[in-house]
Amino acid sequence: MNHYEFCYENDIIDSGAEMKDKKKRFPLIRTIISLLILGYVLTAMDIWFYGMKDEARDADVIIVLGAAAYESGVTPVFAERINHAAELLKQGYADHIILTGGVAEGNSVSDAWIAEQYALSIGLTEEDLILEEESAYTHENMSYSREIMDEYGFETAIIVSDPLHMRRAMMMAKDNGIEAYTSPTPSTRYISLETKIPFLFRETNVLIGYMLMRIAGINP
Question: Does pTM top 0.70 for this prediction?
Answer without folding.
Answer: yes
